[in-house]
Every structure is written in C-alpha cells, then in structure tokens.
Amino acid sequence: MADPLEAILASMAAATGNATTSASKKVLPVDAPGTASKPKGNKRERGLTVSSSSSIWNPLEEMPLDADALKKLGEAAKTLSVTPSMEIMRQQSVRALCRKIRRVSEDLGIAKPPNSVYETWQFTSKLTVKEHDPLIPHAGSDYSSLLEELCKYGATKSAAMRKCKEITRESERMLRKFDQHDFVAGKKKKVQVKVMEHEMHHLTYGNVTVKASAAHFAKLREMYIRRLQQGVDGSTMTPKDLRQFESALFCLLLRYDSLDGGGFQAALNEECFDVLLNDFDCKMECFASPLNCRYSRFCSAFLDTDFAFGSVGSFCDFSPRSGCYEANPPFISKVIKRMADHMTALLNTADGPLAFIIIIPAWRETEGWQGLHASRFNQAHVLIPQKQHGYCEGKQQIRKTRWRIASFDTSVFFWQNAKACNKWPVTAEKLESLKRAFRSKQVEERDALGLRKSGKRARSAQDTSQNRSSTLV
User: Fold this and answer.
1) What are the pLDDT digits (tens) for 299-340?
2) Pair 104, 149: CB distance under 8 Å
3) Is residue 357 helix, strand or coil?
4) Taking residues 29-49, what's their average pLDDT?
5) Share in percent of the chain as helix, strand, coil (round to 5)
6) How far apart are CA 449 and CA 91, in angstroms?
7) 3-class SS at 449?
8) What is the pLDDT of residue 25?
9) Is 132 exposed, middle or buried, given 0-12, 13-18 or 19+ CB atoms closer than 10 A?
10) Could you give the CA distance from residue 349 to residue 356 in angstroms, rounded to a whole number?
11) Domains in the chain: boundaries
12) pLDDT confidence bin for 391, thresholds 50/70/90
C-alpha cells in the first residue's frame, strides 16, 4: 500500500493557491497570564508520570492565555455534542464518501486518486462556507479543490464538475441520515480500555477499537486532567471523570483516524521545538492536534473533540496580541494563503512583540510560498534540503517508529513585527542551531529498535546530513 504522506505530497506539490473569501469570525484574545496544574496520577493507571521535556511533549511550558476567553471557549465547546456512537457513524460516513470518490474517479478514467483528496476537500471547504459537521461536507460545500484534483489527474472540467455535484449530493444525503439518527440508545455503553502487547492501549466501544501507545495515553490523560482542573492543584480523577476521559479519548482517536492521510499531522521533532523555545520563547502551535502537540496549549482543527485536551480551537479564530508561535499548517495552498492573511492582519494590529515561525514545503512555484517569502514581515528564510531533515510520523501514537525522513525541501520563515525583531532577533547562530535540530532521527531510531533500514534514502540521510550545508536565503 502506498504511503499516505507520499500520496498527499504528490497531490499537493502541483497545487496553486487561489484567494479565498474570508468570513468575519469571533477571535480569541491572548494577553493575560494563566496557570496550569500538574495533577497527580490516577491510582487506576500505572506509570502515568509527567513526561520529560525531551520526550513526546513538554509539560513544563504553557502559553499564558486570557482566563475569561478560555471560559467562553469552554462554554462554546459544551454546545458541541460528541459521543463514541456519533463518532463511529461519522467515520462510516467519511469512509463511504471516500469509496464514492474512488468510484467516481474510475468513471473519469483516474485509476487511483491520492488518499488526500477527501481531506483536501474537507479542509478547503471550511475556509469559504460554514460547515454543519466537522467531517461531513453539506450540499453547499466548496468543492473547488475536489474539482481541481480530478482535473489534475486527467478529467475534463465539465465531466469533473458533474461528478463533484454527484459527490456533494451523496454527502448531503449522508449528513441528513447522520442528523436524523437516534444516538440516545448507545449512551449506556462504556468505552473499555485494555493494555496489550508493547503497552499499547486499546480503547473499544462496541466492535470498534482505537489504539494509543503508553506514552501518548499518559500524555493525553495529563492534558485532560489539566483542562478538567482549570488551574486548581491536581487531584486524582473520580470514577465519573475517568469514564468521561476514556470516552473523550476514544472520540479523539477515532476522529483523527478518520483522516486517513496521516501526513496532515506530521510534526517537528522535539529538538526543533526546544531550539525555538530557547531562542525565541516559542511555546504554542498554530496547527496541531492533541496527539502531536508539543505543549498543553495549541490551535487545532476540531474544537469538539480537542478542547478537552487543551485546544483553543481554529487558528483562524485565534487572535494573539503578543508572543511567538510555531505554524506547520496542512500542506494545502489555500490553507497556507488563509493562514498568511490572518497572520498579516494580526501583525498589523499587534500592540506587543508578535512573531510566527512558519514551516512549509519549499514549493516555490505556489502562491502560498511566494506570499510568505515576499511579505514585509518576513525577516528571514532558511531552506533545508530534503535529505538533511525529517519529521515525526503523522500517526505516531500507533506506530512502532516515530520518525520519517522528509520527502521534500523545507522552508522556514520568520515573520516578526518591529517589537519582536528587538526581543527575538534572528541570528546566524540561531539558524544553525535550528538546522542541526532538524536532522532526521529515523536511522538512529530504526537501529535502536533492531529494524531494517528503509532503503537508500534512509541510509544516505545519515551519511550526508552532517556534511552538506543548508541554504540561507
């Protein structure tokens, strides 16, 4: 089976970003300091201790956020219903739509559409229209990206447009079926948790099972307790709290499992985050998930499933007035364009030092890359060659290995206003530290686990990463 990330990159590499309509949205301010609890572990679980800052997350650092804004966000999250039975049916609908896209592609003479097609449609549609469901597009959804994908792989525009309308009608039918379904009957069921081989945690509801490694289970449990306590010194969870955590975790894992293209969730390694923290006080991500986030505060795609684990919602609804933030968005040109527009507006109005460190593929021909490079806020850009760096796997919570060598050159942009330039100057020494931190850990990890090296690219990365210099432009 083809690697999902390879399919995503092949699909996105030739895409161009078109301007999107920006609807006005309520934004979340960031200015007042906040506190985070460090609760004790629950006696029901073993080995759930605070992670070190060099492991899968850093629990010791947290971006200060406005308490009133967080309270309002929590009230909004409570209005969004999410249950295991709902999430199971939602995934079934998504998989049925993916099968529909494959059948339509065959009708158009496209042998095998990339895994990313559905996710690209879903992500880009959210930019221009208000979706009623976090995963299932409605009849009025923006299918322009879906149309572009079908045409790119050989379909005529007229034929592809007919098929796009057919797909959106099917999506609307599934959405109505989902909305009309009675989910009350399944409320008495409980999520069952078992620790299996290699300490992999299996969470089962009915006949559906999702998995998380022991490290990710511990991380997510601590993040859940932090949000539950809302700044109060930690205490063990009650049995009711534990049941609610297990249900919330099942929904979270199934939601991200429904997004089959794991490459949308690829992340920097911890050394890169540590360099950004030490040199730029950067301790919050604009595009993350509870599964791959480095810190306990982050922006993410889904408020309903992610809020319980520390998310503050979509980056496009987030309005910081100061601070330094890392942005590693989905590799979709329209998303990158929307991100850049939002950052530009924030930098134009910020009353404190504000900076964004942006990591995207170095696809110079795309509108998104060109806009980031040409901005007056771009203080520096570093280009890191493909063979000299790597990323965390998109679905690291269920994989034996966490690292992969990058499939593309990477661009890192440093956007800053004047106050940020003075507070966090970008120097050659800092950039060299970051480039060293980007080095792929895949070869070392596979050797440590006794796994076979995955081909020439994995071996050559170790040989060349020490002696080839990155390009500063």
Assistant:
1) 999 999 999 999 999 999 999 999 999 999 998 888 999 999
2) no
3) strand
4) 37
5) 45, 15, 40
6) 33
7) helix
8) 38
9) middle
10) 14
11) 4-18+29-39+262-472, 84-180
12) confident
The CA distances from residue 328 to 82, 195, 293, 368, 413, in Å, are: 27, 33, 11, 13, 11
Closest CA to 254 of 298, 295, 306, 187: 306
Q: Would you state the structure tokens that stand for residue 5, as one six-digit string?
A: 């990330």
Q: Rounded to a whole number, what is the distance in angstroms from the first to the last CA of the chain?
A: 38
Residue 391: alpha-carbon gap to chain centroid:
13
Question: What count of other Cβ atoms lies within 10 Å of the Cβ of residue 411?
Answer: 20
Provide the mean pLDDT of the chain. 81
Strand (E) or helix (H) holding 373? helix 367-374
Q: What is the pLDDT of residue 333?
A: 86
Provide the whole-model pTM. 0.81
Other residues' Cβ atoms within 10 Å of the Cβ of residue 266: 22
325 vs 247, 280, 437, CA distance in Å? 31, 9, 18
Phi and psi at residue 392, to the nearest 5°: -75, 145
Amino acid letter, residue 220? L
Taking the C-alpha atoms of 236, 62, 305 and 302 in order, what is their torsion angle to the nearest 10 degrees? 180
Amino acid at 57: W
Write down the residue that tokens 């449609």 correspond to: 121
CA atoms within 13 A on the CB side of 371: 20
